[in-house]
Amino acid sequence: MRPAGKLILAGAACWCAPAPAAVVPPLARLLKVPTRLAAPRGIALTFDDGPHPQGTPAVLEILERAGARATFFLVTEQVERWPDVAAEIAAAGHEIGCHGHRHLSQLRRTPASLADDLRYSTDVLADVTGRTPRLYRPPYGIFSAGGLAIVRRRGFLPMLWSRWGRDWSARATSTSIIRAAGTSLRPSDVVLLHDSDAYSSPASWRRTVSALPAIVAAAVDTGEPLVSVSQST
What we know:
The chain is an alpha/beta fold. Helix content is 44%, strand content 10%. It is globular.
């Protein structure tokens, strides 16, 4: 291989190096990307890809009955479609995190386009919810090297997860979601779920809503409070 080709491959490898962090905890630790709460107590339920006109209100109702606080990582192209639902999340006292404006992998973005996306989505969230987000979770949980640097430079705390329900899959069932997200929960766990099917299998939010009461009950049974991510920092 020619030297120029080797340089291109090396650059691509460096650019993609953080990508597996969501499924390789030692890599996340090396990159200092949190997958768990900062505090030793509490369990955080987090919801990606919303808001959704049916899924989000159903999740909010379950959380209200449990007296639980959660963190919602919102996609602002959905916020623009359903601003009243996004505002309802904030009004209920839940934390607002940023999931970008468009649900695209950072590996498909240039640094400039990602910076523009973050700037725009932050402005939309502040305008619609009255909250300026401090947490950021990338679409698909995938960071690029440049993307992670930009996220930090803009003052966001990058956030991944320690447990996930895999509720986006067409093969998921309420039982499989409970098994994946609600079994053997531990203090400081961050649980990833989805209140929207905008970027996953159709009606996946229904399976999540069906599983959520059991996941909440499993968390309560640990004796840990159900908190937002920032409540623990």
